[in-house]
Design a protein that fits this description.
Rossmann fold, alpha/beta, 6-stranded parallel sheet, single chain, 2 domains
Length: 368
């Protein structure tokens, strides 16, 4: 099958949508399908895999409490249509089909060529003025989509506030061969102090301020604790200034990609204080590495954790609660070992081959 995966978010932009698209592409190609990832040109992009095609220029905008992207460029619709025709695409799979601009452009191009469009929604929100205002127009576009996928039940609930549609829930996945434990034991921190990990884009909704606010209390109990901050973003300088009083206890390593498994697997605890999320792909990555987690008690994470023993849910924006929970877990190696085992078991259920099977079943249905 010849498949186009269309996304505003791709490397060097790190995040759940990027990982979702890239890993689906790799799994489909492994099975012999011809895949084209259609995305935009971005600052800092390196050499792409041969299956990636870029059109237009990606611009960063502030949206939904975070920094999002939109694609601009002359003749964008024509270029996407020509690309679909040149690659002889059979099915167009768009991430967030009614969000500007690639989703709208690519779906229109596909319909002009008589191609079925599959749409995956990744976005959770409490309200959307844009969806409210443009609901009649967007509803008509959503009605034309051949199949609609949501990565979680919270996404379905959010979209259902504005649109009538049937959604099939197919979650994000994780590469359990790439993300794996490295042999670290729960008591290894005794020789050099606890190692805490924050990994995510440095923007407001990912909650780094909460962890930085918890650090003074944690350091009072465990003075040689090290917080490693992995990620980059427009607010990096703000967070670096915020961390200056903590000295060498906080280390900013910037944006990384290939080294992520090593950072997860060498951490005693992964701290994810995100305030808004639809699913939580970094949680799956940490689970697959056998890393115990403390995560925000928010809608998107609550569904994924679902009472599991791999994580502790803590109120968002509450540094005292994050400090208290971190210290309790650092004092209990047995509990962290049990959390690691629970995470490995859950991650196996979300392995990409399983997720890809379900997505391919959708393609086969809409292309019959």
């Amino acid at each position: 099958m010849r498949i186009a995966l269309v996304t505003e978010f791709y490397y060097p932009h790190l995040g759940g949508v990027t990982e979702h698209v890239h890993n689906l592409a790799l799994e489909f190609r492994r099975r012999g399908h011809e895949v084209t990832v259609v995305t935009a040109n971005m600052d800092g992009q390196g050499r792409d895999p041969e299956f990636v095609r870029r059109v237009g220029t990606s611009r960063i905008v502030y949206s939904n409490g975070s920094f999002a992207r939109v694609t601009t460029g002359w003749g964008l619709a024509r270029r996407v249509r020509d690309l679909l025709r040149e690659r002889r695409i059979e099915v167009v799979h768009v991430q967030d089909v009614i969000a500007p601009t690639l989703g709208l452009v690519a779906s229109s191009a596909a319909w002009r060529l008589g191609l079925p469009v599959v749409a995956t929604s990744h976005t959770w929100f409490t309200r959307s003025l844009a969806y409210r205002f443009f609901r009649p127009v967007l509803q008509r576009r959503l009605d034309r989509v051949a199949a609609r996928i949501a990565v979680s039940e919270p996404v379905v609930r959010a979209m259902s506030m504005y649109f009538r549609a049937d959604w099939e829930i197919i979650p994000n996945g994780v590469n359990v061969e790439y993300f794996h434990p490295n042999g670290r034991r729960p008591t290894d921190y005794l020789g050099r102090g606890p190692r805490l990990l924050f990994l995510g884009r440095l923007d407001p909704r990912n909650g780094l301020d909460t962890v930085l606010g918890a650090m003074p209390t944690i350091l009072a109990r465990y003075p040689v604790t090290k917080l490693v901050v992995v990620g980059d973003g427009p607010l990096r300088s703000h967070y670096e200034r915020r961390a200056m009083p903590l000295g060498s206890s906080v280390k900013f390593v910037g944006q990384i990609n290939d080294e992520r498994p090593e950072y997860y697997a060498t951490a005693d605890l992964y701290l994810c204080p995100t305030t808004k999320a639809s699913f939580g792909i970094t949680l799956l990555e940490a689970m697959a590495c056998g890393t115990p987690m403390i995560v925000s008690d928010i809608t998107g994470f609550r569904e994924l954790i679902a009472g599991g023993g791999e994580a502790v849910l803590v109120p968002k924006d509450d540094p005292a609660a994050w400090a208290r929970t971190t210290m309790e877990l650092m004092a209990d190696a047995g509990r962290r070992e049990a959390m690691a085992a629970a995470g490995l078991a859950k991650a196996a259920r979300f392995a990409w081959p399983r997720v890809a099977d379900r997505v391919l079943a959708v393609y086969e249905r809409v292309t019959r």
